Amino acid sequence: MISVQTPISEQTIDSLKVGDPIFINGYIYTGRDAALPKVVKLIEDDKIEQSDIHLRGSAIFHTAISAAGIGPTSSNKYDIESNIPILSEHGVKIHLGKGELSKETVEALKKNNSVYAVVAPVTALLQSTVIEKELVAFPEDGIEAFHRIKVKNFPAIVSIAHGRTIHDEE
């Protein structure tokens, strides 16, 4: 397993390749259909700097936070995947979720030196990696609000890196 510490450096992303198993340590944002478009709106309205959201070197996990635990949602849903390019452009280095992404998103990840890693839907295991959690923005969205969680040894597998995907033929 490759240990990845947040904030994530450009050099760390440069060293990752498709198929690499990683453990993420530090802070991860969580957001999905409701929160991610709102984060992008903050960027577009030049209000992200006034928020508690610091995207440079960050990771975003496509999930909700509930008493039942955390587990990945499908990253190829429109309200998630359509926001990946702009989030990458503004500093998100690792997007975490499940599902195959479009060629356009693969190219946007490559352009912005960001990667996508898949997370197995194993809620109990993932919940055991969470050390602390904090509501950062959009409390009106309930479990889909934007959170920051601190994790230790959060497991994932790099699925897209540098224009290649796990789905490419060798």
What is the element layout, followed by pairings?
Layout: E1 2-5, H1 10-15, E2 21-30, H2 35-44, E3 58-61, H3 78-81, H4 84-89, E4 92-97, H5 103-111, E5 115-118, H6 123-127, E6 130-137, E7 146-161, E8 164-165
Parallel strand pairs: 1-2, 2-3, 3-4, 4-5
Antiparallel strand pairs: 2-7, 5-7, 6-7, 7-8
Please provide a brief summary of the model.
The protein has helices spanning 10-15, 35-44, 78-81, 84-89, 103-111, 123-127; strands at residues 2-5, 21-30, 58-61, 92-97, 115-118, 130-137, 146-161, 164-165. The protein has six helices and eight strands, in the order E-H-E-H-E-H-H-E-H-E-H-E-E-E.
Helical content (DSSP H or I, runs of 4+) = 10-25%
Order of strands in the sheet with the most strands?
2-3-4-5-7
The second-level CATH architecture is Alpha-Beta Barrel
Give the count of structural domains.
1
Low-confidence runs (pLDDT<50, min 5 residues)?
none
Biggest beta-sheet profile: 5 strands, mixed, barrel
Provide the succession of SSEs.
Answer: EHEHEHHEHEHEEE
What fraction of the residues are assigned to beta strands by DSSP? 25-35%
Query: What top-tier CATH class fits best?
Result: Alpha Beta
How many helices? The count is 6
Mean pLDDT comes to 94
Roughly how many Å is the radius of gyration?
A: 14 Å
Can you count the beta strands?
A: 8
Structural class: alpha/beta
Structural description of this entry:
The chain is an alpha/beta fold. The protein contains six helices and eight strands. It has a five-stranded mixed beta barrel. Strand 7 (146-161) and strand 8 form a beta hairpin. The chain is globular, with a radius of gyration of 14 Å. The model has no long low-confidence stretch (mean pLDDT 94).
